[in-house]
Amino acid sequence: MTEQTIEFSPVMRVSDLNLFYGESQALFGIEMDIPKHQVTALIGPSGCGKSTFLRCLNRMNDLLPIVSINGHISLEDGTDIYEKHQDPIQLRRKIGMIFQKSNPFPKSIYENVVFGLRIAGENRKVVLDAVVEDSLKRAALWDEVKDRLDQSAMGLSGGQMQRLCIARAIAVGPEILLMDEPCSALDPKSTAKIEDLIMELRGKYTIVIVTHNMQQASRVSDYTGFFFEGKLIEFDRTQQIFTNPKNQQTEDYITGRFG
Amino acid sequence: MQSSKREKAYIKKEAKKFWSEGEYNVWFSTLSIGVILLMALTLLVVILINGLGALWASDLALVQTKDGRKYLGEIKQEEQRPGGKGARIQLKIGNRDLYPLDFMWVDHEQIVSISYPKDAVTLEREEYGNFYGFLDNVKSPELQGEKLGFDELSVPAEKAKSLAEEQIAEIRSQADDMESIRLDMLKLTYDDPVDPEIPLLATELDQLKEVFHKTVTVQEKSHVEALQHIASMVDAEGRVRETPMVLIHRYYYPNQMGIGAKMIHYGAKLLELFTDDPRESNTEGGLFPALVGTVTLVFTMSLVSFPLGVMAAVYLREYAREGVMVQIIRVAVNNLAGIPSIVWGIFGLAFFVYVVGGGIDSIFFPERMPTPTFGTGGILWASATLGLLTVPVVIVATEEALGSVPSEIRQGSLALGATQFQTLMRVILPMSSPRIMTGFILAMSRAAGEVAPLMITGVVKLAPALPIDGTFPFFHLERKFMHLGFHIYDVGFQSPNVEAAKPMVFVTTLLLLGVVILMTSASIYLRNRMKKRFTGRTF
Q1: How many other C-beta atoms lie within 10 A of the C-beta of residue B137?
Q2: Residue B44 is inside which H or E element, if any?
Q3: How many angstroms separate the CA atoms of B92 and B247, rounded?
Q4: How far, in Å, are B129, B245, B465 from residue B257 at the CA level?
Q5: Distance CA B264, CA B270 (A)
């Protein structure tokens, strides 16, 4: 639990969020404000609930029937995303997600990027073409694939696939991007490219990134939250967390004494 | 000395390792695949040799025996008599109308000589099977002169044949017209017995009947005329048999034919196999109706089983909440695959034919009762029965296929704001389509080989009309049909002359195998294309 308030304009407010997998509780009273147009990193040892928390933000946990959630997550305009009338489909268009394992569809590169638009009913070629170019450029992939947009996405390298997934998420025009350990399956060079990309996207999108890599968190993020055993132990500016953590557990984890 | 000792020790060590490391299990698996391959190959070779050999023009051997008799026929096989009594040969002597049996065994020691007379001729007749003998002379009211043969005789005979074909086609179309008027009348009478149109139709029908009888009389007369072109044949022992040329399907001098001529003959027989109707209670002639029946059956079956199975599996895997109920359904589906096919047949008869078909009849064709239209066996009901029979295979394969799509892909689609249905249609089904196809191929080959359920749901020995033809509405799925698998059973086990029918059994088996292989390879080709298209490169 954060002890002091930090000054920023939040895009999402999480308050008193509890999550249960059947009987066992996985998240305990999470209170967190996600800063707008900033990069927020979530760190913590395996099984601490950071990925689970991330998946709460776009209601991906709804897909598991055993999960039950209470608490509130409200958007900028004050709507609670877990309210009964909220449509998770609409929500997920606003909040894109990048997964640990890159998961391009076995379609062409072009079709991968426009997938989100097509399911939303957008089929005008001019619009799609423009979005493809724009998204791929933003994902720093355009120059590498512009000559083979009609080829299968499965022919790309691992790093390219992950950037394609980012482009695919951007194409829908989300406000927030959730990234669940996006670089853990990539080599250092591809990781560096993704990190550069995250830096580029900051300011236009709100990014929440789960990572195991402390260097990565310190390199790319503006704010960092430390999770431990289902609780948010500390949440502060990244610089603050990494140089002068207030909590002993945070310090132990960051300095590598456990975890 | 030293080295050989070391060698021995090494071998011993290796042998011990062979057993302790379980290497021998590999040998067992190799052995089992070998046994399976051997059996399949043996079966295939037997079918191939017998099936492909059946159409070959065999030479005619003139066998003279010690008791002074002569036999002309095809030497079918040679075997050792039991008890070391020497060898014997089997002759197909044909001429079923002259001899009590058209196959006979002749012991080697009885044979005085075997020769192959050049002028021995084989007649494939429309009735009584093959005739082996020699041409004595030909008689025809239209032919005069010396040294006439089959070639001259076949000119008027062909003319008579094509005339007969025309006449029969005319009779058929007149009969069809009469039938449709009769059905119209039935319907009108049923709706309103005093409909003013009924007497009009009745007069029309009477007129047609008159025309019909005239046509029949003409046909009968020309048939009698056609029978006047006669080939007078003698058998090996000089007995005369007069055969009208129109009843001779084909004649050839096998002993004069070279390899080339025999190849041409073989090709002609093959073409006949694919395009002609069967003759001689199915033991001769072509298999065209059975071929059409089989293919139509399998395609119609797919239309039933494929959508049903895929949709059921999609619900089970994607929408149904996992629980006891779903588990029970799954077990039940798996057990359905183990139900004997004859039981499916009985179900098909009771449900599709009597309930569904009978229902259709009583709603749409009540005027035709008690003659059933859909309430009797037909290719539609047989297909539906086979469709149900193969649905478990499709369900199981589809479930596996859907389950094999990685969850990241599903989540990726959902995270982009796709609904579950959109995810299913745009991502999951395309990705699992190759595996679904695999199940479909299995279902198809099972259906193609199934006979028992067909026997009570509409297969017949000889169907008067094809299920697909040129008259509207082109697909007549209520009709009875012929089927290659049933053909095998019928020709092989229901025919009075099993020996004569044997080649046809092999040919039919070969053709059925060919059809199955062709259909499955088409599906496999399709599957591979889907794999390329929908799953991309896998690594």
Answers
A1: 16
A2: helix B24-53
A3: 21
A4: 21, 22, 37
A5: 10
Over residues A146-165, the pLDDT tens digits come to 898 888 888 888 888 988 99
Say what the pTM is.
Answer: 0.80
Q: How far is CA B161 from CA A53, B156, B221, in A?
A: 87, 9, 13
B289 CB-contact burial (10 Å; exposed 0-12 / middle 13-18 / buried 19+): buried
Cβ of A99 and B417 within 8 Å? no
Q: Which residues contact A53 (CB under 8 A, 6 or more apart)?
A: A17, A19, A27, A30, A42, A227, A232
CA distance B323 to A113: 37
Count other Cβ atoms within 10 Å, centred on residue A173.
Answer: 16
Helical H segments across chain A, by residue range: 50-57, 88-94, 109-119, 125-138, 142-145, 158-171, 188-201, 214-220, 238-243, 248-254
Which residues have CB under 8 Å from B16's CB, separation 6+?
A: none
Minimal-distance CA residue of chain B relative to A179: B415
**Distance, CA of A74 to CA of A68 (rounded, Å):** 18
Query: Is A60 in Cβ contact with B414 (below 8 Å)?
Result: yes
Q: Which residues pair with A25 in a beta bridge?
A: A20
pLDDT in tens, B223-272: 888 888 888 888 888 888 888 888 888 888 888 888 898 899 999 988 98
Stated as kind and residue range, the H or E segment containing B513 is: helix B498-535
Q: What is the pLDDT of residues A31-80, one digit of tens each?
A: 888 888 889 999 988 888 888 899 888 888 887 878 888 888 888 888 88
Q: Are B157 and B246 in contact (CB under 8 A)?
A: yes
Is the minimum CB–CB distance between A121 and chain B shorter than 8 Å?
Answer: no
What is the C-alpha separation between A93 and A58, in angstroms, rounded? 9
Across the interface, whether the CB atoms of A89 and B418 are under 8 A apart is answered: yes
CB B374 within 8 A of CB B478: yes
Q: Would you list the DSSP string of B83-124?
A: TT--EEEEEE---TTTSS-SEEEEEGGGEEEEE--TT-EEEE
Instruction: Give ipTM to 2 decimals.
Output: 0.86
Most B CBs within 10 Å: which of A89, A148, A178, A184, as the mutation test of the B interface?
Answer: A89
The dihedral built from the CA positions of residue B216, B222, B227 and B228, taken in this order, carries a sign that is positive
Cα separation of the two ends of chain B: 53
Cα–chain center distance at B253: 30
- What kind and span of H or E run contains B71? strand B70-80
User: Both tokens of residue B140?
Assistant: 């025809």
Q: Are A26 and A49 in contact (CB under 8 A)?
A: yes
Report yes or no: A93 at the B interface, CB cutoff 8 Å.
Answer: yes
Do A105 and B413 count as a contact with CB atoms less than 8 A apart? yes
What tokens does B81 get?
């008599």
Q: Percent helix, strand and coil across chain B, each rounded to 5?
A: 60, 15, 25
pLDDT tens-place string over residues B46-69: 999 888 888 888 888 898 888 888
